[in-house]
Every structure is written in C-alpha cells, then in structure tokens.
Description:
heterodimer, A: alpha+beta, 5-stranded antiparallel sheet, 5-stranded mixed sheet, 9 helices, B: 5-stranded parallel sheet, 5 strands, globular
Amino acid sequence: MALPNIDHAAVLNSLIDSIIVIDAAGHLLFINSAAANMFRVTGVSQHGQSTDGWLQFVDSDDDEWAIQHDHIQLDQLLQRDDVFIHHASGKQQPVSVTITRLDQADTTAYVYTVQDRTKQHALSNLKSAFVSIVSHQLRTPLSAVKWTLESILLNRRKDPLSEHHKDFLEQALESNERMISLVNDLLNVSQLENGKMKTVPQRVTPATLLHTAVNDIQMYAHANNVTLAIDQTVAGLPDVYADPDQIQQVLQNLLSNSVKYSPGKSVINLGAAVANASVLFHVSDHGIGIPEQAQERLFEPFFRAENAIATKAEGSGLGLYIAKMIVELNGGAISVESQQETAPTGTTFYFSLPQFHGDEAVSTTNPNV
Amino acid sequence: MSKRILIIEDEPALQNVLRAELEDAGFEVASALNGAEGIRRATDFLPDVVLLDVLMAGTDGYAVLKQLRRLKTDSGPAIFIVTNLADDSTMKQLRSYLVGKDQIFIKSNTAISAIIDAINAL
C-alpha cells in the first residue's frame, strides 16, 4: 500500500505547540500557525526576515534570556520552563521553551518549541498562596496556643495548678510543638520544591557551624540523656562556602534524628574532614541504625524506616528530604552509612560543602547571622 | 527603672499573653493593635524595646520599621521583630533592616521567656 503524501508543513501547522525555525543569524526559516498566533506575527510574509525584537523571552525579573545558540550541540537541547513572552499589550505569558539544533546541508538551524504554561503557572501561584496561608494563618493560632500554655505553666502569678493539670498542659504543649514542627517542615519542603529558597553563601568556619548546631540542640540532647561531642580536629579545617542558616537546618535535622533514635547515656560524634575540594561533615550516633533496604529510600519525602516507626518516636519523614535538598542547593552531597548485619552499630550521616577559595562572589556579610 | 516595652501586634490572643507575661516580668508595657497606632505610641510612650509584628493589615511591620528608623536616634528603641513569616527569603530581607540591638524572633519557635531574657540582656 502506498503511503499517502503528507504535507509536513500542514502537520506542523496543526500542532498546538509553537514551532519556530531560525538560521544562525536569527533569520526566520519557518513558523507554524500556533507560533504566529502566540508571537502575533503574520506568518508567511515574515520568512527570511530577522526575528530580532519578537523572538525573545524574559525571566520573572523581566530580564531577557540571553540565548547562546553556538553552545547548543547537535545531540543536546536547551530548555527552560520558567520564562515569559512579553507581549506588546504589557501582558506576560508564561511559557516553556526547548531549542534544538538542526544541521542540514551547509545550513545550521535552530528549532524552537514553545509551550504555553498559563495553566501550570496559575496552579503554581495557587500553591504559593496556599503556603502563605499555612505560614501565617496556621502558625498564628499555633503560636497563641503555645504562648498561652507556656504562660500558664510558667505560672508567674502563682495561681494554684495541680500536678495533674500540669501534666495535661505539658502534654498539650508537646502536641502543639509537634504540630508547629510539622507545619515548619511542610513550609520548608514547599519552598525548596518551588525554588523559593535562595542560598546566600558566605565564608563560614566548619567549627562555628558545628558549635552553633550543638548549642541549639543541647537542651533536647540533655533531656534524652545523650552527649554531643565535637571532634577536636575541626579547629584546623579550611572554611566552607555555604549559607550558614540553611546548613544549621541540615545539622538540626540530622542531630535531632540522632538524638531521637539513640539510647540513653550514648554519645553522638560530630566532625569534619577535607575531601578533595570539599569539607565532608559527619554526624555519628550509636542508635538503632537503618536497615539496608531502607537506606536507598531514606531521602525520599515522607519515608520512614520500619524500625524508626516501631520506636513510636514521632517524625514526619521530611527532615532528611529537606536536608538533602538544602545540601544540594549549597553545592554538596549527602549520604548515609549504617550497618545492621549482626547488631545495630548506629548510623553516620555525611554531607559535603564546597571549600571557600577566596575568589567566590562574596555576598554581603550579615552581622546577624 | 523598669524597661518600657511597646507591643505592636494585631492578633489579640498573642498580644494579651505577651503583655501579661511582660508585665509579670516587671516591665512597663504599652500595646497597639495596628501599625499606625504603634507609630503613635512609639512617639509618646518612648519605649526601650518595640516588639513588632510584620504581617498586619494597613500599616504593616515594614512600614512601621521605616517610620521608627526615622525617629530612631542612638537612644532610640531596640526593635525586636516578632513574626511568623519564617520563610528563608523573608528572613533574609528582614535581617537587612536590622541595626544595633535589633533581633528577630519566630513566634512559633520562640518561648516568651526567650524574649524576656533578650530584653533583660539589653
């Protein structure tokens, strides 16, 4: 059976996605109907003409995306899904753009595939609005409950409070704090997933990072009868280049896990060492350990190992997922080591941060960090 | 002489408990339920410390901060931002506004006793 003769241009014109083909000098070689409509150009008459002035994209700050065509290799594609078309009307249309290279005879052409992302953009805005509501509208009443319970328990007015009532109020305060911590985790995940968390890397001393983290969690460790020990060797290490606030959160998440799953009277060791161009930090405990099959999934959101669930210790399964995302955002990597073959020997978490070399674009030093 | 504290907080439940605790800790306390009232109280009450919420209807914490900054001299109040806007970018923005003895507290992560300790430490 003979194949029907298909008009390729007609096929391209039937697509919903916009297709634009230009040569290396930016002259238009082809534009389909969807693209002519999207960019408000009158199709065929434009062939061979310059695309300057209309085939351009801006980011959310309205800065133009400088596309470097000569960097696109034959088997690669250049892709962005966070850009906008700035229409003459002033309207900004969110789009995703894929650019591929096409070499034919002696001509190099670039094929633009542009997809409208108005709906996805609206959904993402809705998600951000939801996060903002959670952040303020949920945390405010949670804070009011927390402060009120603390006020009654502090009992500055010396109102009589029976031991029985005191126990109940302490339980209520503990539940309230668990809820606050869950809301905090969800907010963090949402910000990290939406790319809203921006790193402000600075020159930081590894010892400072570790000492700050230990100070912050000391009370919790003490309450669980666990000792935190920082290796002496951290004093001589080179500085790292990372966002100190965010790394504190990584350390807090790792340390609170270690404390939570450690037996009383045990020690958690913290340290760091130089590894190539990085500094490799570690947090080692003598806790219940992590079964090998669980280690692969440990950094996935909401995942909790079975032996962790069995301890009845509370956890959202978000802490390590957050830690992983933050470490990667800061140019490092996180990993775990835990052996369980015979008896649990505890767990060691490692994470790396790039060393400070002095030629980084140093952000404004903030005295309050 | 006991320290003078001005609370600018639009959530009555939070303001009430904060006020009660601060008074019981021995401070002289004034309060305002919105930013505009807060700026007025700052000029007549002359607080040592302003506890300032950020997200408020009308004149929000940022606007109050700018106004107070204008009034602020060397003997002006320390500003303690007390907020639940704890996302990373807001925190970085808020920090850029701080000078001298100013501090930031995240409500849901802070015990009132920590705020009292910080006031006493000034």
